[in-house]
Design a protein that fits this description.
13-stranded mixed beta sheet; binds 2-acetamido-2-deoxy-beta-D-glucopyranose; alpha/beta; about 400 residues; about 10% helix; ATP-binding; LRR receptor-like serine/threonine-protein kinase GSO2; ATP binding
Length: about 400
């Protein structure tokens, strides 16, 4: 053992005592966390079940407060979990002092106002759920500083402005929910840097412009993409068909144009496809009908055309819903359709189909609705985002109609 054998322990002692002194003098500790939470509590204007009022008492340890979790190692607050308590109020800059916070869940409350920049100090955040409150203002660009973030839920608020391209910094992000806000502008190309993304849900905003052509090039883990109810135009970029893990793809009610490429058949895990209410044209590539996991094919209200071939549904044993109404398809109703034993809904009205409904329709014992020519829409799709599994539902089913 050389000189370092004696020097090293000595150096550590010296370092520790200097560092230790700084630590107790200015470093945040559990008292800081208590003050931060008391500041939050004091700006809660409505607490209908008096949960914070009765429980967040100054005589109890902050680590025993309802919704608060402390880490065992540092005795600092690591999680704040207060969803659905009916709380109303604003978020104070003090919250940014919870420097060990990894989990912040205040969803389903009535918090409002804008978010203070001090929250950018929460560098350890992995989970941030502000969904279903009344936050307004722009999504702050400093959200890009949450480099550990895996899940971000800002849906069902009143956020305005554009999606900040700094979100492209969140390299660990797996879930991004921004639906049901008032966001505008185009989807930033930086989203294409989120290579761990599994769920990207941007429904029901005012997003417009083209999808950046290579935006999906590196999103190879994407399982759910929903851009429904926006104003997105242009073609569906071919890079989308590299996302081979896609289970749920919903682009309906936009202004997408062009035809569907043969590469759509590369999405072999696809379970639900919603493309209705766009300006898509041309024929549907047969590769789509090779995706045997498909349960929902919803293409109505486009300009799609082509002759339906009798065997096109041979490989879709799980199909539950087929909607191709209000397009320009021609030919006869394919008899292979009646091999899809689980079919519940068939919509083919307002096309240029000919002939009659084949008698095999009687083989479909699950059938609830077969709209041949009746001009009516009576289903509404939704993705149950709270279910651990993929599920779909429908509403407004008035009656079973079997006509042509
Ligand atoms: C926390 O830090 C403050 C100074 O910032 C100090 O007065 C207090 O004693 C510390 N509390 C604990 C529990 O270490
Ligand atoms: C606050 O709530 C927690 C969790 O329900 C409970 O363990 C604790 O005893 C409560 N504290 C007070 C002071 O009511
Ligand atoms: C916590 O944050 C507030 C506001 O950002 C600040 O004024 C305060 O000094 C911070 N520190 C402590 C220990 O509360
Ligand atoms: C929002 O939260 C309220 C109150 O908890 C709840 O009733 C409502 O269903 C929630 N809405 C959504 C869209 O989750
Ligand atoms: C993005 O990350 C880089 C490095 O990780 C950092 O320097 C930069 O400040 C971050 N940008 C934002 C907006 O947080
Ligand atoms: C959202 O913001 C707009 C404009 O600021 C306002 O008119 C509207 O009432 C807000 N909606 C909600 C649900 O807070
Ligand atoms: C994506 O990340 C790369 C490398 O970190 C960076 O050079 C590029 O500017 C980023 N692209 C966008 C659109 O943010
Ligand atoms: C689709 O799959 C084929 C065969 O596996 C492959 O050659 C092609 O590059 C894929 N296309 C896309 C857009 O991923
Ligand atoms: C459908 O799959 C079969 C069997 O894997 C294959 O032979 C055929 O070429 C595929 N058809 C299309 C249009 O992709
Ligand atoms: C429909 O059922 C009948 C009798 O059960 C059977 O002969 C026929 O092959 C079935 N047709 C189809 C398309 O499955
Ligand atoms: C989710 O799917 C798994 C595997 O398919 C199944 O075992 C489980 O029962 C499903 N859960 C629900 C709530 O449907
Ligand atoms: C084609 C289609 O369904 N368009 C609808 C899209 O959504 C807007 C409302 O956001 C409706 O007005 C359109 O009719």
């Amino acid at each position: 053992m050389g000189k370092t054998g004696f020097l090293l322990p000595l150096m550590i002692v010296v370092l520790l005592s200097t560092f230790g002194a700084t630590l107790s003098a200015d470093s945040p500790n559990i008292t800081t966390d208590r003050l931060a939470l008391l500041a939050l509590k004091s700006h809660v204007t409505h607490d209908p079940r008096n949960l914070l009022g009765s429980n967040w008492s100054t005589s109890a340890s902050v680590c025993n407060w309802i919704g608060v979790t402390c880490g065992s190692r540092h005795q600092r607050v690591t999680a704040l979990n207060i969803p659905g308590m009916g709380l109303t109020g604003t978020i104070q800059s003090h919250l940014g002092n919870l420097s060990f916070l990894a989990w912040l869940d205040i969803r389903h409350n009535g918090f409002h106002g804008s978010l203070p920049i001090e929250l950018a100090n929460l560098r350890r955040l992995k989970y941030l759920d502000f969904a279903n409150n009344s936050f307004s203002g722009e999504i702050p660009s400093w959200f890009g500083s949450f480099t550990q973030l895996q899940r971000l839920y800002l849906d069902d608020n009143n956020f305005t402005g554009v999606i900040p391209s700094t979100l492209g910094n969140l390299s660990k992000l797996e879930t991004l929910f921004l639906h049901n806000n008032n966001l505008k502008g185009s989807i930033p190309a930086a989203v294409g840097n989120l290579s761990n993304l599994k769920w990207l849900i941007l429904d029901n905003n005012y997003l417009s412009g083209h999808l950046p052509s290579g935006v999906f090039d590196h999103l190879s883990k994407l399982q759910a993409l929903s851009l429904t109810w926006n104003q997105i135009s242009g073609r569906i970029p071919n890079s989308l068909f590299k996302c081979k893990e896609l289970v749920y793809l919903s682009l309906h009610n936009n202004s997408l144009e062009g035809s569907l490429p043969i590469e759509i058949g590369n999405l072999t895990m696809l379970n639900q496809l919603y493309l209705y209410g766009n300006n898509l044209e041309g024929s549907i590539p047969l590769s789509l009908f090779n995706i045997s996991s498909l349960q929902v094919i919803s293409l109505e209200l486009n300009k799609l055309s082509g002759h339906l071939s009798s065997d096109m549904f041979d490989f879709l044993p799980r199909l539950l819903l087929l909607s191709m109404s209000e397009n320009q398809f021609s030919g006869k109703i394919p008899t292979s359709l009646f091999k899809c034993k689980e079919l519940e809904f068939i919509y083919l009205y307002n096309n240029q189909l000919e002939g009659t409904v084949p008698s095999e329709v009687a083989n479909l014992t699950s059938l609830k609705s077969f709209h041949g020519i009746i001009l009516r829409r009576c289903f509404h799709d939704y993705l149950d985002l709270n279910s651990p599994n993929w599920s779909w539902g429908y509403a407004n089913m008035d009656e079973v109609v079997t006509t042509m």
